[in-house]
Amino acid sequence: MSTWNGLPNGRGAVDGxxxxxxxxxxxxxxxxxxxxxxxxxxxxxxxxxxxxxxxVTEGADLVDVGGESTxxxxxxxxxxxxxxxxxxxxxGLVAExxxxxxxxxRARVAxxxxxxxxxxxxxxxxxxxxxxxxxxxxxxxTPFVVMxxxxxxxxxxxxxVYGDVVGExxxxxxxxxxxxxEGGVAPERLVIDPGLGFAKQAEHDLAxxxxxxxxxxxxxxxxxxxxxxxxxxxxxxxxxxxxxPARERDAATAAVSxxxxxxxxxxxxxxxxxxxxxxxxVARAVEGAR
Length: 290
Known about the structure:
Helices cover 40% and strands 12% of the residues. It is an alpha/beta fold.
């Protein structure tokens, strides 16, 4: 397995993507009517493209475009509809010079998004949902995010059972990394993601954030996608209160982004960019002052 390339704090670089000298910021554009975070605000193609451009203006280094909600309990969208949602947005952003990632579990969507100019495939299933995904990614030579995943949204909460969440997530990710590499994807093009909120309760997510060094020890750059997730609502609610709505968790998201950047994450994935862009830049300045 490949080793770190010496970038600040050992966060690593990914072949085929720009090399940032700090934790990168991945902005999210959900082209869905049922996102847990934004409730379909960017469902129209032209509005979604404008949203992506706004995120870049606010400090996003790359924009992740997805056309299928993966919130807990969500039903799957059909492939044709996912293609209709995603590909025009990818094409529109690429035409404006944006570095674009596609968030999909389907090989055909990944393939067409890459043909439209996407330079990273972000698969929350780590290639498990579609057997054609790994050979497709290998054939295109596109960098690939392997996320820790135990099953589809409809029943993933029932799979949130761990004796040692950090050890089990690391072990399961190691198995996926080996499978993806055996499938033909170059290790230098792999990113790993602990899958915060996917088959995990709040205490599991917090433990993973607290032990990012264990994930980095797998030898690949780490993407942290904590934005607006349930565990932040749980923290902000305290013992008695109700969790704040997703869109009121952006300050908490920026706090996790600062922690992740300090701990050597390659990138953080967020819905609102400005505060996180500031957070990762401050973290980099502190690193540089040591």
